[in-house]
């Protein structure tokens, strides 16, 4: 019992010492549904290769689009304005499960995630990737 508590305390102090937020992950598991991401918040380490395991459990096509730093898709997705601002994306047919990889941006910051299927952004299909500096 005491040993368990001791191990927990060590673990807790390690967590606290690593810069506050949730520990960054290099593997992201995300479910896309009509019309949201679960989870919708991800923390990743800058410059690392990130694997995304995505599944579309909804009834329509969904995308996981990461926008470039400092850009957002605004109220509604438009190919003309927003395609040049795509950092990385993956698309899933309904019922599909797909994996993809990308190299995390080198610049720490908050990156918007949105679904570019018409109407989905307006329906609230939005998320966030936070890039944190490596140790
Ligand atoms: Cu969608």
Please explain how this structure is put together:
The chain has helices at residues 2-17, 79-82; strands at residues 27-33, 36-38, 41-45, 49-56, 62-67, 86-92, 97-103, 109-114, 126-132. The mean pLDDT is 90. It has 135 residues and is mainly beta. It has 2 helices and 9 strands. Strands 3-9-8-5-6 form a 5-stranded mixed β-sheet, with no helix packed on it. It has a 4-stranded mixed β-sheet with strand order 2-1-4-7, with no helix packed on it. The longest helix has 16 residues, at 2-17. The protein is 15% helix and 41% strand. Strand 1 (27-33) and strand 2 (36-38) form a beta hairpin. The radius of gyration is 17 Å and the shape is globular. Copper (II) ion binds next to loops.
Largest sheet: 5 strands, mixed
Unreliable runs: none
How helix-rich are the residues, as a percent range?
10-25%
Structural class: mainly beta
Please count the beta strands (DSSP E, at least 2 residues each).
9
> Secondary-structure element order, as H and E?
HEEEEEHEEEE
Radius of gyration: 17 Å
Number of helices: 2
Strands of the biggest beta sheet: in what spatial order?
3-9-8-5-6
Fraction in beta strands: 35-45%
Shape field: globular
Heterogens: copper (II) ion
Task: Determine the mean pLDDT.
Answer: 90
What is the first-to-last residue Cα distance? 33 Å
């Amino acid at each position: 019992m005491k040993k368990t508590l001791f191990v927990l305390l060590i673990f807790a102090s390690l967590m606290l010492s690593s810069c506050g937020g949730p520990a960054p992950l290099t593997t992201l598991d995300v479910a896309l549904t009509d019309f949201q991401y679960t989870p919708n918040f991800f923390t990743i380490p800058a410059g690392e290769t990130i694997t995304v395991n995505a599944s579309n459990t909804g009834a329509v096509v969904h995308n996981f689009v990461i926008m470039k730093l400092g850009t957002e898709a605004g109220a509604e997705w438009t190919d003309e304005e927003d395609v040049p601002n795509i950092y990385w994306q993956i698309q899933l047919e309904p019922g599909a499960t797909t994996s993809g990889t990308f190299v995390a941006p080198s610049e720490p910051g908050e990156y918007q995630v949105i679904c570019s299927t018409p109407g989905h952004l307006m329906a609230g299909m939005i998320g966030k990737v936070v890039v944190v500096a490596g140790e």
